[in-house]
Amino acid sequence: MKIINPATEEIIKDIPEDNENSINKKFIELKSAQQDWSKTPLEGRVKIIQKFAELLKANIESLALVLTSEVGKPLQQSRNEINGAYTRIQWLTENASKYLSDETMVQQPGLTEKIVYEPLGVIANISAWNYPYLVGVNVFVPALLAGNAVMYKPSEYSSLTGLEIEKLLKQAGVPAYVFHIVIGARSVGEVLLNTSFDGYFFTGSYKTGKYIYQKVAPKMVPCQCELGGKDPLYVADDVADIKSAAAGTADGAFYNNGQSCCAVERIYVHEKIYDQYVDEFVNEVKTWKMGSPTDDGVYFGPLSRKDQAIFLKRQINEAVQKGAKVLIGGKPVAGKGFYFEPTVLVNVDNTMDVMREESFGPLIGIMKVKNDEEAITWMKDTEYGLTASVYSNNQQRAERILSQINSGTGYWNCCDRVSAAIPWSGRNHSGFGATLSHVGLRAFTKPKAYHFKQPA
Fold first, then answer.
1. Do the Cβ atoms of 342 and 288 come closer than 8 Å?
2. Catalytic residue positions?
């Protein structure tokens, strides 16, 4: 498989792909090693994962270079991602004992009732390319902490980073046959779906997630899908600092080229402040530099995938045909690399694909609304349900709005952020299940109830 640098279109490396035979061999090894790993005391597993976190930090520069070379994100954003993974691992390891240890629920004379959290067994982690450290850590870290063995399939677009993750996990002390990586694209994923795993954890698009869910359903094992979003954001008329709100929300829309499942994908602005907000938003984006992702100060690198530019252009053309206006951007950048201009559309409405279907790129539509009720109507008009944001000076107002949106996460005066302490989950076409928090730690376990009654 050829690994291509999206900034230069040069081949970085050829790496061998896995096949059915190699995957079956790795699965057998994982199956045989999992029991011993689960019997390793939890404190021992925690220390190993903490060591992995320290190795991430110690090797951040070389790891960031590899990540940038294959997905195209600016080097500082790659460093940010690895630092974010370190922070998440800290929370997960610090809280593993609290949420994975046995719990005594009833203790009275002659009777004890307790819950034991047993590992699922061997799980498949089919991961994503846009944040391979973050979305990977969300799954394989709690899975390993809970005593599972993991077969990890990185995206074909971030395979080199996947190999770095495997190397450092084993350097930290994860036994050789407790974590295996498999390399390849769709055909490798198909083999995983036909293998007898004890759980499936996928991060990616709705279309692929739906396919995986349907395919593994007859196995009757846990399956979690963290899928995409068309995340709405509303800017109310009581915002005091419109310039600051515009800058923050622009970053929420365009960070990592908008290639984030929780990126702001559509913006609704109260008519009283609409014109000023749009002006401030566009002015902010114009100050951000596009260029080689290894250059200092670059905000926009190339898209990670070449074909995404075609999809973005199609959304823009459809919107313009329906009456939208392009304020800045609107097309791929000529020359080497998969660069696309940051694009802002106005005069948009919810009949346009740009306001309905996930863009996953540096493209945003900004729509004027008359009041909160109209904003709520359009924010709810979606098949997705990952995040929703409200910018307002009034928390009660924001909470009232957010409580009416069927999303896994609500933001007040922030957006596009994830915390290890609270669940990360989607609704509707954004998926199901949860990672992170105590919910995410226990997602990789099977609770077992014990009733101990003393003889009379």
1. yes
2. 226, 261
